[in-house]
Amino acid sequence: MAPDTVSLRYFLVLAQELNFTRAAARIGIAQPALSARMRRLERELGTALLIRNTRSVVLTAAGAALAESAPPALAALDRAWDTARSAAAGELGTLRIGYSVSTGAETVPALVDRLIRSSPGLEVGAVPMATPEISAAVADGRIDAGITRGEQPGRGVRRFLLRSSRIGVQLAQNHPLAEHPEIEIADAAAYPLRLPDRAANPVIHDQLTELFRDIRPHPRFHTPAVSFDMSQHDLRDGATLAPAGEAAATTQPAGLTWRPLRGAPRLTIHLVLPHEQSPLSHRIRAVAKTVAHELHWLRD
């Protein structure tokens, strides 16, 4: 049986000092306790490590060999302990995050960046996914975590509110409504409203259409043929508005701006984790809470 590492570390101090009094003082224990430790270590190894007399301590051949070979072995053991602790803290391994495209402009990059910087041993991969697929992918283990707009349905997962933001509209900078710091819902509804296909995110689609339910006459909704069209021609020409969350205010293409809708409810972004907790899920949850606090994602 291998000796305990505490006695081995004490032996290395004594091998350097070659004096029980100085070694005991350096370690911070009584000299008799150090002597007892060394006798027990020699019994465990079945050989003498030290030659003692009243004036000096000399290493035997076995003691000299142990003094030379033990430090790298202990260093390797320390690394093994550190690796085990890091794994237990969710700081090692591969973390797969699926996210809805609409969260990819700000939310996901901020979270992934913090995960990478705070856990160098963690390999983080993020991939865009169709929003309705994310909860199921987390539940069956295809991904370790998900970021979605809205509280998407699905079993076998836990959901945590990550971000809350005002609902507003994207519109051309020269649009007449852009002169107002806030826009009335009824005023926005007087223009055609561009919404993404409901299949892309039923929860958010229904929330946005519900916003205009009581407006008369009913607003005109249309869905572009290409989701997330970067050209945004229909907005640039001033004929169309696009309901969007507050994050759009910081990621506007040239020629467009964003204004909040007065009295509108808030859009939410959620972190989706497996129902069964693991070190990885604990880690991403802790980092997500820190980022949300620092960036004031839930300030209201």
Which class best fits the helix and strand makeup?
alpha/beta
Give a short account of the largest sheet. Answer: 7 strands, mixed
What percent of residues adopt helix (DSSP H or I)? 25-40%
| Assigned CATH architecture of the largest domain | 3-Layer(aba) Sandwich
Number of helices: 10
Domain HTH lysR-type: 3-60
InterPro entries: LysR_HTH_N, LysR_subst-bd, WH-like_DNA-bd_sf, WH_DNA-bd_sf
GO cellular component, one term: protein-DNA complex
Keywords: DNA-binding, Transcription, Transcription regulation
Structure description:
By secondary structure, the protein is an alpha/beta fold. It has 2 domains: 5-88, Arc Repressor Mutant, subunit A; 93-300, D-Maltodextrin-Binding Protein, domain 2, CATH 3.40.190.290. The chain has 10 helices and 11 strands. The protein has helices at residues 5-17, 20-27, 31-45, 61-88, 107-118, 131-139, 185-188, 202-211, 233-236, 279-294, and strands spanning 50-52, 57-59, 93-99, 122-128, 145-149, 157-172, 193-194, 221-222, 242-245, 256-260, 266-274. The strands form 3 sheets. Strands 3, 4, 5, 6, 9, 10 and 11 form a 7-stranded mixed β-sheet that branches. Strands 1-2 form a two-stranded antiparallel ribbon. A two-stranded parallel sheet has the order 7-8. A hairpin with a 4-residue loop joins β1 (50-52) and β2. α1 (5-17) packs across α4. The model has no long low-confidence stretch (mean pLDDT 85). Residues 3-60 form the HTH lysR-type domain. Pfam families: HTH_1 (PF00126), LysR_substrate (PF03466). GO terms for molecular function: DNA binding; DNA-binding transcription factor activity. Belongs to the LysR transcriptional regulatory family. This is LysR family transcriptional regulator.
